[in-house]
Amino acid sequence: MPRQPKVQITRDPRADGSVTFGLRVRIAGGDERVSLGNESEGWDESRVEKARKQLLAKIELGLWSPRPDARAVPGDAEPTFRELATDWLEARRRNPAIRPRTIELNEWQLRRYLAPFFGELLPSQITRNTIKEYRQRIHTENAQIRDAEASGGPLRDPRSGLRLRTLGNDSINKSLRTLASILDEAEDGGWIDRNVARERRTREPLERRHNRGVLDLDEFSALLEAARQIDNRHLPLTVERAEQVRLLRDVAGLSWKEIGDRIGVAPTTAIYLHGCRDDEAATTCGVRRAIIATLGFAGPRVGELCLLDNQDINLARARFSIRDSKTDAGVRLVDIHPALLDELSSYFAGRAPATMDAPAFPTRARTRRDRSNVLQRVVHPIVARANAMRAERDEPPILAHVTPHTFRRTYITFMVAAGYDLPYVQAQVGHVDPTTTLAIYAQLIAGHDRDQLRAEIRSLLGVDQPSQDAAQRPLRTRPETSAVTSLRSNQKAGNGRATHR
Questions:
Q1: Secondary structure of 145-212 as H, E, C letters
Q2: Is pTM beyond 0.85 here?
């Protein structure tokens, strides 16, 4: 059976630091190069990839054929690692069983680390020593990044302009697993006898694990309070423009459109600025507090939270829907407990209007957040602020290594401690195996009075206090919701779903 035609991207670095792109076409026993252009002429990775796909489509339709004088190559000629990786990545893109997030990670590993180092090597030239040099180069770059950060001038990627970050041992090993998967193709093709990237000695030693515990009730409360304080602090320019908007609206009586035209912003932005006050004692729920509350009171994965749109959150029915997840069980409806209902009601009532298909928890620029944004822009500043608050109160710091996933473990632990039955908790967090829910996450605090702990957690969730006035409930500030909505939320989230022991 003849080999399928292949079109691979070639990159030729120039003395001035630019790259000239081309395509290598291997078809019908021939090997032909097609020149495209230099970066200075507007060629970049996305444009070259589009040209590659267009040429491949022409070949498949019979609209392109190699020149008669194209250099002939043996049918089993060994490809370079870059060529092999290009075909490997393209095959994964066509595989519907592989999630887009995984493809993005593989593409980043190849573009940032693997292709620059192994790109022009033949698979047979990749040895244990080659892989060792690859690891050493990453550690050298890590040291340069740390030195630059210490001197106040962080290194940046010359192409994207993004700040360079160090790569930990676990991430290095993940890139080596990707390398091994690509070299499996070379082993299957007979170009290598043994895949050295599969050997354990090529791996970096595992780093010491952070404290992957759960948050105590008081720690979670401190994080919510810290989020509220950060949400209600604005940049000086924002505070200045907000005062100008209030003057134009409350004193001059201008419409939102007139105000927007006067200060050069959209009417919706003018509405948002009208409510901006640099007041740490304010009781409104901002986006950071809404994110922390959703993570801690509902337990979604951070990727699931980032994908939530306004239309996915139904406050009237006290639930939100996860439409995309890492497993089939992860596609689910999640109940909104009364405490979270209060937080989200306050959040949506106080923010600028947005379309139903807009992100539920957008960035300042109204774009969708990703995992890195939630960790760096939300979790880390809130933990720092919470620890500063606790130090002022002579309270111990939060010692757990807090990530977005910490809130998921905390939520499940709280739910089990509060007496909810395991199948319900499993369905709420989207676990396939109940042993994952119980054995890994249900870390009940030893030595606590179980009855007292259960009462405290259920009070935190708000499920045992349907008659208590909303303003008196702990950790909650929101506009009043209807009695029917509150009753439905309490019944759904509390009364019928817990097993009291």
A1: HHHHHHCCCCCECCCCCCECCCCCHHHHHHHHHHHHHHHHHHHHCCCCCCCHHHCHHHCCCCCCCCCC
A2: no
